[in-house]
């Protein structure tokens, strides 16, 4: 992504001299701070979350299957989005622990709105508490047959989240929320110059396309009603609706448009190949959606093989791009490294690395496996087993979590090479650093439940 290497961590003063950008620390407003002190101690939060989860499991066992399906429709997409927020907080905690100046990737204006890992997890904990509480009440009222009360909870939750995103109230890191909402709007209307924040959010949204499609379906179900009606194939929001593939395709369309915009601004032909990569997701979505429009014989004989071929092309192209461009590993096009890993020729790695070399080999192998399983979330016809769909969607969020540190490392090294006056952006590997990066990455995940 050569387009994004011109975002400095400095600002230009009136006399033409570069100065470090002034980033004011985010302080939680009084109400948010009170909520954090009251509810964000890790043992209290974990106990409350476990209690809500037990209520949900027990109540759904007593409820009818159609209400269990409704629970998944309304609450599963929000769970995946919150998981991604927790993982992003873990990424930020890792950067902070290793003193990686990841904020340099963002423009000086955007840096002022970046939250610390602790603040991200505070927000994630409050949102998780709201989600689990609403889900527990919904499941409880469904089990007792109190459908009128059950119908209130998803409506209240979705309305509150929308208001929280849109309204500039002095609550829960207002400036950061408004920055996120503005960046989301920029991503959804890709007609402006693409910033690093735009690119990163759009790339993350492609990993959340399944959750966004499910969120679109849940919203459709709430608006079309009845809220507690069974989810049938023939409904406006059912499996055969055009709404589902549209929701899956939108993040890829946004990212494709960004690539074309960058090509227009810079003339970098590589962006056309990047746009082509995102376009390979559309045949996967289209052929999968056709399952509900054609006969079973036509699906098995014609469209299913086309879907499989398109899925393999998309996964292969995306994996190649992850390694060669996003991670700059040159596993396919670089010269032989002379090293071997698991009996195979090891890909060429840079001399300076944030992690130990085994970590990169693990990331390449796990990325390949997760890329191949990723086709599951692109396919509307594979959505009937809710637990399996949830597992695969969370795995894709985890793949993106692993992708972020190396992508940031590559960008920072480009910036450090182009702008040496920025100073040390990535600390040199510590002695015995072969295991240091792996331990710190694991530690950042463990800290994700800390206040």
TrEMBL record:
<feature type="compositionally biased region" description="Polar residues">
    <location>
        <begin position="7"/>
        <end position="23"/>
    </location>
</feature>
<dbReference type="Pfam" id="PF03124">
    <property type="entry name" value="EXS"/>
</dbReference>
<feature type="region of interest" description="Disordered">
    <location>
        <begin position="1"/>
        <end position="26"/>
    </location>
</feature>
<feature type="transmembrane region" description="Helical">
    <location>
        <begin position="74"/>
        <end position="92"/>
    </location>
</feature>
<dbReference type="InterPro" id="IPR004342">
    <property type="entry name" value="EXS_C"/>
</dbReference>
<keyword id="KW-0812">Transmembrane</keyword>
<feature type="domain" description="EXS">
    <location>
        <begin position="235"/>
        <end position="439"/>
    </location>
</feature>
<feature type="transmembrane region" description="Helical">
    <location>
        <begin position="147"/>
        <end position="173"/>
    </location>
</feature>
<dbReference type="GO" id="GO:0016020">
    <property type="term" value="C:membrane"/>
</dbReference>
<feature type="transmembrane region" description="Helical">
    <location>
        <begin position="44"/>
        <end position="62"/>
    </location>
</feature>
<dbReference type="GO" id="GO:0005737">
    <property type="term" value="C:cytoplasm"/>
</dbReference>
<keyword id="KW-0472">Membrane</keyword>
<keyword id="KW-1133">Transmembrane helix</keyword>
<feature type="transmembrane region" description="Helical">
    <location>
        <begin position="123"/>
        <end position="141"/>
    </location>
</feature>
<feature type="region of interest" description="Disordered">
    <location>
        <begin position="424"/>
        <end position="451"/>
    </location>
</feature>
<protein>
    <recommendedName>
        <fullName>EXS domain-containing protein</fullName>
    </recommendedName>
</protein>
């Amino acid at each position: 992504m050569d387009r994004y290497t011109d975002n400095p961590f400095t600002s230009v003063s009136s006399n033409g001299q570069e100065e470090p950008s002034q980033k004011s620390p985010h302080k939680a407003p009084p109400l948010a701070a009170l909520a954090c002190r009251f509810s964000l101690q890790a043992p209290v939060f974990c106990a409350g979350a476990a209690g809500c989860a037990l209520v949900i499991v027990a109540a759904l066992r007593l409820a009818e299957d159609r209400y269990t399906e409704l629970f998944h429709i309304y609450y599963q997409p929000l769970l995946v989005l919150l998981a991604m927020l927790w993982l992003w907080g873990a990424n930020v905690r890792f950067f902070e622990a290793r003193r990686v100046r990841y904020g340099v990737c963002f423009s000086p204006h955007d840096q002022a709105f970046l939250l610390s890992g602790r603040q991200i997890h505070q927000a994630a904990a409050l949102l998780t508490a709201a989600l689990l509480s609403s889900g527990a009440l919904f499941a409880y009222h469904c089990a007792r047959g109190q459908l009128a009360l059950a119908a209130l909870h998803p409506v209240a939750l979705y309305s509150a989240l929308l208001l929280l995103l849109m309204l500039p109230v002095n609550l829960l890191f207002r400036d950061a929320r408004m920055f996120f909402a503005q960046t989301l709007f920029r991503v959804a209307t890709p007609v402006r110059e693409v910033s690093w924040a735009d690119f990163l959010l759009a790339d993350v949204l492609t990993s959340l396309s399944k959750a966004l499609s499910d969120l679109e379906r849940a919203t459709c179900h709430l608006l079309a009603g009845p809220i507690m009606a069974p989810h049938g194939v023939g409904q406006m929001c059912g499996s055969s609706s055009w709404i589902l593939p549209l929701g899956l395709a939108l993040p890829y369309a946004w990212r494709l448009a960004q690539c074309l915009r960058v090509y227009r601004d810079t003339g970098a032909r590589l962006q056309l190949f990047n746009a082509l990569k995102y376009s390979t997701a559309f045949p996967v979505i289209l052929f999968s959606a056709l399952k509900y429009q054609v006969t079973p014989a036509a699906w098995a004989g014609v469209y299913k093989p086309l879907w499989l071929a398109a899925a393999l092309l998309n996964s292969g192209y995306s994996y190649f791009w992850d390694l060669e461009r996003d991670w700059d590993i040159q596993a396919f096009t670089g010269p032989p490294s002379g090293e071997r890993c698991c009996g195979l020729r090891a890909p060429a790695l840079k001399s300076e690395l944030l992690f130990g070399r085994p970590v990169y080999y693990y990331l390449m192998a796990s990325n390949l496996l997760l890329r191949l399983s990723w086709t599951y979330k692109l396919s509307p016809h594979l959505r009937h087993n809710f637990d399996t769909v949830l597992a695969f969607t969370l795995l894709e969020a985890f793949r993106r979590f692993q992708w972020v540190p190396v992508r940031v490392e590559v960008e920072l090294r480009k910036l450090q090479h182009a702008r040496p006056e920025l100073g040390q952006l990535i600390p040199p590997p510590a002695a015995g650093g072969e295991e240091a990066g792996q331990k710190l990455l694991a530690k950042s995940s463990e800290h994700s439940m800390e206040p």
